[in-house]
């Protein structure tokens, strides 16, 4: 199996197993804290950070999968590639087909191509089993941290649509489960789901929602990709996969969901229906406090035969979500390079990725152009809330974050090289020493030829 042949979570599991990137755990484990604690330890380096397949989950008959996307390699495989930078190269090459406009506008044109639009199909495995009486208690949802408010779906794809335009949205928003048939949807203000909720509430109508677990890993990534508002997540999944995503109509509402999903939870949010959700352990190392969130009343649950139950753990980095974010970093770099060819590479270190720190290698042309570039970037959506932009020269490897901080500390004159804009800071560390230290080329070649002779390896 190759990454490009993957169509659903089962193919992805088979690929990970083939490539020795997944461990099956046989002893019974508890969905209350234990699975999360094991996964956290693996994300921090145990078991070579492999994906985990928990075969026996206490109180349930279904297996739970975690950390599927938890490495750069696996994140690349999930979207059909062998290596994440292929994503940048592909986007950069394809953007050239769309002549005018900013890179973001051209990206939207690319995603609007008919070839990438999801297509309705009449039949698909996601409805192989229809629960007679929908019961959320049958799902092995995880309680991740001791202070969490309960059991959550942590890797859900939440489908909604705009009541006026009919345009759909698919976002990854956490879902807390309550009893047989209630769940809360915690979408941030401004997110696609939150905008749709307001639009339905204004009309005084109940909003249809479908929550999906599993399916094509490219769609799972697309649900959490920070796309321009006009861009469609499912088209991104189609573009990544080089074929449209197959969608099935829901049973109890007019939404459609990926045909190869493991689970589909259909429901309605009545106007103004809310319930307290949380607390929930977050990536900043604390808890999001309990707060009111949209309340869903479940109308149907369908699933595949022998369904898999995917989950992720949120918490201090490194965690799985950081690797998904690295895919977005590569897409963002392609868009940046299309507009600013002087940008050689960027790195949003996993420890800082959700806090707006970006290291940028740039070819500097004139004095003052770094300050201008910082301002141009801050005016764009991905960098609006950026805390720190650190610019280094085009030869510096920004993937080596330690090296970048060493350079910044050594080269920066705080009077001259810092650019402030409200809470945002940019550091211009592009200046090079008059005579940079570098090994003698002849000595480098000599070491290359004699290295084995010194007997230092092995
Ligand atoms: C594991 C994970 C969990 C997330 N949880 C939430 C969440 O609970 N609420 C939220 O608004 N965004 C959450 N996000 C971020 C959104 O998925 C992301 O911002 C996405 O682009 C939202 O799509 P939208 O722009 O269509 O709203 C999460 C992302 C990941 C990777």
Major sheet summary line:
10 strands, antiparallel
- From the alpha-carbon coordinates, what is the Rg to the nearest angstrom? 24 Å
Q: Give the cofactors and ligands.
A: flavin mononucleotide
Number of domains: 2
Task: Determine the mean pLDDT.
Answer: 96
Helix content estimate: 25-40%
Beta-strand residue percentage: 15-25%
How would the global form be characterised?
Answer: globular
CATH hierarchy, class of the largest domain: Mainly Beta
Q: How would you classify the quaternary structure? A: single chain
Number of strands: 24
Point out poorly predicted stretches: none
State the CATH topology of the largest domain: Pnp Oxidase, Chain A
Structural class: alpha+beta
Give the CATH H-level superfamily of the largest domain: Electron Transport, Fmn-binding Protein, Chain A
Number of helices: 12
The appropriate CATH architecture of the largest domain is: Roll
Task: List the defining traits of the structure above.
alpha+beta; Pnp Oxidase, Chain A; UbiD C-terminal domain-like; 2 domains; 10-stranded antiparallel sheet; 5-stranded mixed sheet; 29% helix; globular; binds flavin mononucleotide
Topology, element by element:
Elements: H1 9-18, E1 22-25, H2 34-43, E2 51-54, E3 64-66, H3 72-78, H4 85-95, H5 103-111, E4 119-120, E5 129-130, E6 152-153, E7 157-161, E8 168-171, E9 175-178, E10 182-185, H6 192-203, E11 207-213, H7 217-224, H8 233-241, E12 246-249, E13 256-258, E14 263-269, E15 274-277, E16 280-281, E17 287-288, E18 291-303, E19 309-311, H9 320-339, E20 343-347, E21 357-362, H10 369-378, E22 388-393, H11 401-411, E23 418-421, E24 424-429, H12 441-454
Parallel strand pairs: 1-2, 3-19, 4-12, 21-22, 22-24
Antiparallel strand pairs: 2-3, 5-18, 6-9, 7-8, 7-11, 9-10, 10-18, 11-14, 12-13, 14-18, 15-18, 16-17, 20-21, 23-24
The protein binds flavin mononucleotide.
């Amino acid at each position: 199996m190759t990454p490009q042949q993957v169509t659903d979570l089962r193919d992805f599991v088979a690929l990970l197993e083939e490539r020795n990137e997944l461990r099956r755990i046989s002893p019974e484990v508890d969905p209350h804290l234990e699975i999360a604690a094991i996964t956290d330890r693996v994300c921090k380096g145990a078991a070579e950070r492999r994906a985990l397949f928990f075969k026996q989950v206490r109180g349930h008959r279904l297996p739970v999968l975690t950390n599927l996307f938890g490495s750069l390699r696996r994140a690349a495989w999930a979207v059909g590639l062998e290596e994440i930078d292929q994503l940048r190269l592909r986007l950069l090459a394809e953007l050239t087909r769309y002549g005018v406009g900013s890179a973001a506008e051209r990206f939207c044109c690319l995603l609007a191509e008919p070839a990438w639009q999801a297509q309705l199909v009449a039949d698909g495995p996601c409805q192989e089993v229809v629960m007679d009486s929908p019961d959320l208690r049958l799902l092995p949802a995880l309680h991740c941290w001791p202070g969490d408010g309960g059991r959550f779906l942590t890797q859900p794809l939440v489908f909604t649509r705009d009541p006026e335009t009919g345009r759909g949205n698919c976002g990854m928003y956490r879902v807390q489960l309550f009893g047989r048939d209630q769940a809360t949807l915690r979408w941030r203000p401004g997110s696609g789901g939150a905008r749709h909720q307001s639009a339905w509430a204004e009309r005084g109508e109940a909003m249809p929602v479908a929550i999906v677990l599993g399916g094509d890993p490219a769609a799972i990534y697309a649900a959490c990709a920070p796309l321009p508002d006009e861009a469609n997540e499912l088209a991104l999944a189609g573009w990544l996969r080089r074929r449209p995503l197959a969608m099935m109509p829901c049973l109890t509402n007019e939404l459609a969901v990926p045909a190869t999903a493991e689970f589909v939870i259909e429901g309605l949010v009545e106007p103004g229906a809310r319930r307290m959700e949380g607390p929930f352990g977050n990536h900043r190392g604390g808890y999001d406090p309990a707060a009111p969130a949209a309340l869903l009343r479940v109308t149907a649950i369908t699933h595949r035969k022998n369904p898999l139950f995917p989950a992720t753990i949120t918490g201090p980095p490194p965690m799985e979500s950081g690797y998904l974010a690295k895919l977005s970093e590569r897409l963002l770099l392609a868009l940046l390079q299309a507009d600013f060819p002087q940008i050689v590479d960027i790195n949003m270190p996993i420890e800082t990725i959700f806090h707006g720190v970006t290291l940028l290698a740039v070819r500097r042309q004139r004095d003052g152009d770094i300050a201008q570039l910082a301002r141009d970037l801050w005016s764009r959506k991905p960098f609006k809330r950026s805390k720190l932009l650190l610019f280094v020269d085009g030869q510096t490897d920004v993937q080596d974050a330690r090296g970048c901080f060493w350079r910044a500390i050594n080269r920066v004159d705080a009077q001259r090289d810092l650019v402030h804009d409200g809470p945002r800071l940019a550091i211009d560390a592009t200046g090079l020493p008059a005579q940079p230290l570098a090994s003698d080329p002849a000595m480098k070649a000599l070491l290359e030829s004699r290295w084995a002779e010194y007997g230092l390896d092995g």
